[in-house]
Each structure stands twice: as C-alpha cells, then as structure tokens.
Design goal:
Elements lengths: L3 E5 L4 H12 L3 E6 L17 E5 L5 H8 L4 E4 L6 H6 L1 H18 L5 E7 L11 E2 L10 H14 L4 E6 L1 E3 L10 H11 L2 E5 L4 E6 H13 L1 H4 L3 E4 L5 E3 H11 L4 E5 L11 E2 L2 H5 L8 H12 L11
Parallel strand pairs: 1-2, 1-4, 2-3, 4-5, 5-7, 6-14, 7-11, 8-10, 9-13
Antiparallel strand pairs: 10-12
Helix pairs in contact: 1-7, 4-5, 6-9, 6-11
The protein binds nicotinamide-adenine-dinucleotide.
Length: 312
C-alpha cells in the first residue's frame, strides 16, 4: 500500500513541487497550510484521489492531531522563511519555526518518520575556502537561522528522524519566490536589465527545487539507512560566489549590466562552500545545473509581465 505523507506548509514554494513529485511517485499526500500568501497553487491536484488539503495553522494542537491520523511520513515545511520575514515578526517566527516543530515532534508516534528541512545558512560566516561538512559547528546569525538550527536539534534528539540542510534553492514553482538569490538575480536581469551586487566574493551553495523534491523521496525510500543524521543538500558544481552567479546569468542575458558595490550586507553573513559528500554516500546526488535553472526561470518570467501595481 502506498505511504501517506503529511506536508505542512506544502502550498509554499518548495512544497508545491514536492507534492507534485510525491503524487507522481504514487504517495498519498495531505497538505496542511494556512495559505499565508493567499496562494492557491494546488488546484490542479484536487482531482487526484491521493491528494488532500487541510486549511489550518501548524501551531494548533487539535489541527495537528487530526492531520497526523493515518500518516506514515511527516515533512514539516511550514515556516516563516528568510531573515527579513522573520525579523518583521520575531514572536510569530519563534512559534512557527520552533514551537510548532517541537509540538509535531511530540505528537507523532515513534512509527511516523519525520524529515525536517533546515538551511545551510546555519554555517554562518566562514571563509568561503574550507568545505563545511555536517560536522562543522553551526553558528547561525539571523533569527531565521537560529530558529531553524534549534528545530533541527529538537528533531535529531528523537528517533526515526533526519534533517536536510538545504542550500539556497532555485527554479520555478507554482508559488514563485523572487527573493532567493538565483531567482532574484535572474529576475533583475530580465525585468530591470541591471543589478547592484554587494559582497561579490561571498560564496553560497545552490540546489534546484526539483532536486530537493527528489531528495525527500530518496530519504523516505532509504530511511532505514539514513535516519538519525543531518545531510547537506546542494549541487557540488554550484558552490559559487555572487559574482560568479551574476556573470553566469549574463551568459544567458548578454545585455545584463552588473555593478559591484562596497555598500550593503547580508543579514545572514553567508560565505561558505558546502560538501555534499555524506548525501552522495547515502545514494543521492543533485543533478539539475544552474544553467538549467536559469533557462527555466527565463521562460517562466515571460509569464510575469503584468503587475497589479504598475501600468507597464
Ligand atoms: N527555499 C529555500 O531556499 C529553502 C532553503 C532551506 C530551507 N528551506 C525550508 O523549506 C521550507 C519551505 O520553504 P519555502 O521556500 O517553500 O517557503 P514558503 O514561504 O514558500 O512556504 C512556507 C509555507 O508555509 C505556510 N505556513 C507558514 N506559516 C504557517 C502556519 N503557521 N501554519 C500552516 N502553514 C504555514 C505558508 O503559507 C507557505 O505555504 C521552510 O521550512 C524553509 O525554512 C527553504
């Protein structure tokens, strides 16, 4: 019988692609989401008998208890995501990003596998020269990074669990995110034609949203061998500086004007290269390249021409 997966925050950027991949792989999928962005990216799943949607808040105990019934695997994606969003409402951030994760971890039975995504921005400010492994001490800087690292520690302290330390994700989703670095730089290239880049030498690691979805499925299918650990999830070939990324986008958009500036800083002070060796040894490797993602974004952005806020 096919496994039942609960995806909290499943109507978000990552969740919308993950649900598509899970349904295609034959899983039963229940999404619990409060539709924070007024989004409705799952209308096309509703005809699928293996798909179900619950509108609700992941902080509510009764809602979680109901959602957890008959579930084999829990993927808690619901979060206040990114440093700027978290700083706007620190109280809600702690509740959603930590308290609700602790609650779902307490409510699940020991037979229910939990796979928790966190961010590799927990590696904070390193030199950008030495590869961070899962053994590298976490030094989160922003409230976002702190709450995600605290939640990861909570999850890993219990049985039948694993965590994925995701690189910065790129690619299109029915719930687009333009604040992610590759998505943002590409958007600027095609809409404005110019970009001001600060901290140009700071390095980051990236991964395609569909590789992340495939990775979750790999983790479900190989849980016996993989449980109890954290895994970095990134594309080895995409450990690149912000300058390198901007210049790669320019290869696709030759008229893109890039200005490198001394002014500006990242709230997470991210400057690191990340090793994905542990995940590779567990049998999974990200495949989709930055070039694939940029081509895909350029196609999708042709559909975002009209804005409710601008008569252009
Ligand atoms: N996108 C990335 O680059 C990235 C990298 C590392 C980790 N992550 C993690 O992956 C997860 C998903 O990120 P995303 O990029 O899809 O973000 P997103 O903002 O697109 O999705 C978050 C979803 O959670 C829902 N949500 C928020 N608060 C809720 C609540 N109280 N109850 C129920 N639902 C709620 C929102 O409506 C939204 O659909 C997050 O946990 C994030 O920390 C993402």
């Amino acid at each position: 019988m096919s496994k039942a997966v609960l995806v909290t925050g499943g109507a978000g950027y990552l969740g919308s692609i993950l649900c598509e991949h899970l349904l295609n792989a034959g899983y039963k999928v229940t999404v619990l989401d409060s539709l924070l962005f007024g989004q409705h990216p799952h209308m096309h799943f509703c005809s699928n008998p293996n798909y179900d949607f619950m509108f609700g808040d992941c902080r509510d105990k009764a809602t979680l208890q109901k959602a957890l019934k008959g579930i084999d695997v829990i993927i808690p994606l619901a979060a206040v995501v990114g440093a700027p969003a978290c700083d706007r409402d620190p109280w809600m951030t702690r509740e959603v990003n930590f308290d609700a994760i602790k609650l779902i971890n307490q409510l699940r039975s020991k037979d229910q596998l939990i796979i928790y995504p966190t961010t590799n921005s927990g590696y904070g400010a390193k030199s950008g020269d030495v590869f961070c492994t899962e053994e590298t001490p976490l030094e989160p800087i922003s409230l976002y990074g702190q709450t995600k690292c605290d939640a990861e520690a909570e999850i890993l302290s219990s049985a039948n669990s694993m965590t994925l330390r995701l690189a910065t994700v790129f690619g299109l989703s029915p719930r687009p995110r333009l604040d992610l670095l590759v998505n943002h730089f590409t958007y600027m290239a095609v809409t404005e034609g110019y970009l001001v880049v600060f901290e140009k030498d700071f390095k980051r690691n990236f991964v395609h949203v569909r590789d992340v979805a495939d990775c979750f499925i790999h983790c479900i299918e190989h849980a016996n061998k993989m449980c109890g650990r954290a895994y970095n999830v990134g594309l080895d070939a995409a450990n690149v500086s912000k300058e390198g990324l901007a210049l790669k986008i320019k290869e696709h958009v030759p008229n893109f004007y890039i200005h490198f500036s001394d002014v500006g800083s990242d709230p997470d002070k991210r400057n690191y290269v990340v090793s994905n060796q542990r995940l590779r040894e567990a049998g999974f490797e990200a495949k989709r390249s930055l070039d694939d993602g940029i081509r895909e974004l350029l196609k999708g952005y042709r559909m975002l021409k009209r804005s409710a806020m601008k008569n252009v």
